[in-house]
Amino acid sequence: MAKKPASHTVQDNDWDLEEDIAFWPTWVIEQDPLEPWVRYWGLRILRLRGRQMGAHWWLIQDRQLMTLLEWTEEEYNEATVTRKLRRVIEELRALPKPEERGSPIFLNIARLAARLELNVAEQRILLLAALGETYDILSAVLDELSEWTLDRVAVLLAEALELDTILVHQALLPHSVLRSCGLLQDLHEKDLRLMPGMASLLLQEHENEDTLFAPLFHPLAASTLTLEDFPHLQEHSERLMAILEGAWREQEPGVHILLHGAPGTGKTEYALALAKALNAAMVEVRSQDAEQNPIEGDDRFRAYALSQQALGRQLRSLILFDEVEDVFVTSLLPWAPRVGAHKGWTNRLLERAKVPTIWISNSIEGIDPAYRRRMIYELEFTAPPKAVRQRIIAQQVQDLAISEEHIARWAKESNLTPGSVQQAARAMRLMGTAASSVPSQALETLLEQRGHEFSHRTSLEFDIDLLECDQDLPTLLQQLRDLPDARLLLHGPSGTGKTAFAKHVAEVLDKEMHQFLASDILGRYVGETEQNIAAAFRRARGGVLFLDEADSFLSSREFATHLWEISAVNELLQQMDSFRGTLIMATNLVRTLDSAVFRRFDWILAFAIPSRQRQRRILGHLVRSLPLQTEDFDLRILLDKMSPISLAVANNVLRRLQRRSDLDTRIITDTLVATCLASTYTCSRKVGF
């Protein structure tokens, strides 16, 4: 390598050719320590290939041949094929065998060999492949190997590298360390090539072993969270810690844990917290190669195999494999990357994995059952319980001056994930003073833009005594505390408090409320409704599942006209039998439900329009909630002027009048009468044109 003296600097704008030529003799030429290896191996391979190719010597490029033979163009053109081959032999006899020194590649290969347990043949093949990708001369003599059989390549390389043919052949097989880890690519596709970027990585000087392996897999920093930040997963945490401790103690292979669930529910953070609690070193399988190009499908499996081989002897290690969909789910698109094509090889890789692995996925739909069967533990992540959500939100917005009232209101939103709050809070910090003078309003706007809906509708404070039901509700609530898997059917006219009662049950039982409407369940394609039903029950496991408008997907099968209608009802009935949690279903049309569903309910509650006595209570509750200067009302006279009042009517009146400052008896009476009339209005005209 040529270097100019530091004292002389040539400027681009005053460069003079004659002046620069005068300085050429002063340049220091440093010999490349790898050139002896390139010429030695190049000549050996050239001799072997020339002996086999005979008159087909022309397949090798002339320029590279002239360089190896150290002939001028005139000498090269005048020589015959036999003379060229004789020249190769003469040059080889005069060349001493190179020494392994002077270049970082030898130390780097030694580091790889120590981590991956590579034998001498595998190390030499690594060195040859790296030099072949770097030096044109060596690349030329290695060209066209993809057209050879594996046995023929093994014989050639063994003689060229002065190794045992059996060892070389074993190193080139698909299940070898080099091939299974992806360090060496398929000979029939890429000739003798390493994984992208590996050659340059080996040629670079690295301070330590970690910097060498960083582009292949990198250690993850310790989490700022602990398992105490996931109290709702305490039982799972205890089991997982015991499983991993046992795997390390017994050196049990094939220990795989699958964490799956919606994005932003804390899967990765939980995995890091688990590693922290176990005092384990965790590395992540990269999704890009050493040249920063994305890797997918089988190539990611090979990167995983490399991590397994490198960490196999390191105590208390864990591997994190994120975005499992890249490797476990096969795309239906013909031009998409091939995923999991070598299923048998993949299964063996999973079964023999020495290092416990945590796999993370946003969805398990489409994952081959053969892969899921090899998972020793599966844990689904849903939105954390309300108490945990409130705690997480408070932590993430503690520097944004958000009131506890707003945090508590946001925490009631079951679909609000920690990831969404984190990103919204991050946007607030980046905007600074430009965000808003009211931080809570700005943050709520950002969350709504992410698809989260917050109820701004004012309603009367819930009072169970305002509900008209055919059963004693306080006694029922007491019994529900002792029955964790209760089934309730609520039916009756609209506005009688069925939804409010379902939410109250969740609060009394201190369970997460999962509410689904018909639009959340019914699908447009065959089988989609059944999948949505199963997903809803799976997500609500352990909490309260509230299915509103149950008549939309639980209608009697007797009048079904399509097979999918029957299969949807069958799926729902089966899910009801196996569900672990409190199930509440509500309908206004109880008579249209399938007859098989009624025996599955522990309680069937009939809600009705409140009696006159309860209507007086509702009116009193409403009047006390309005900004009145006086409460001079005769509730009995007011009741006589209107249709029966329900909770829904009272809530509508409250929303209409809560901000008026000129309220009096007449305004309230007129609003009540008009609202009651509107709630009982039915259109007699036929629908249509």
What does this structure look like?
By secondary structure, the protein is α/β, with parallel strands linked by helices. 48% of the residues lie in helices and 8% in strands. The chain has 33 helices and 13 strands. The strands form 3 sheets. Strands 3-5-6-7-4-8 form a 6-stranded mixed sheet, with helices on both faces. It has a 5-stranded parallel sheet with strand order 10-11-12-9-13, with helices on both faces. A two-stranded antiparallel ribbon has the order 1-2.
Topology, element by element:
Blueprint: E1 2-3, H1 17-23, E2 28-29, H2 35-53, H3 62-69, H4 73-78, H5 81-94, H6 104-116, H7 120-134, H8 136-141, H9 150-161, H10 165-172, H11 177-180, H12 187-190, H13 198-203, H14 209-213, E3 217-219, H15 234-250, E4 256-261, H16 267-277, E5 281-285, H17 298-311, E6 317-321, H18 325-328, H19 343-352, E7 357-361, H20 369-372, E8 377-381, H21 386-396, H22 404-411, H23 418-431, H24 439-449, H25 473-480, E9 487-491, H26 498-509, E10 513-516, H27 518-521, H28 528-539, E11 544-547, H29 563-578, E12 582-587, E13 603-606, H30 612-625, H31 635-640, H32 647-657, H33 665-679
Parallel strand pairs: 4-7, 4-8, 5-6, 6-7, 9-12, 9-13, 10-11, 11-12
Antiparallel strand pairs: 1-2, 3-5
Question: Which structural traits does this protein have?
Answer:
single chain; 689 residues; alpha/beta; six-stranded mixed β-sheet; 13 strands; elongated; disordered N terminus
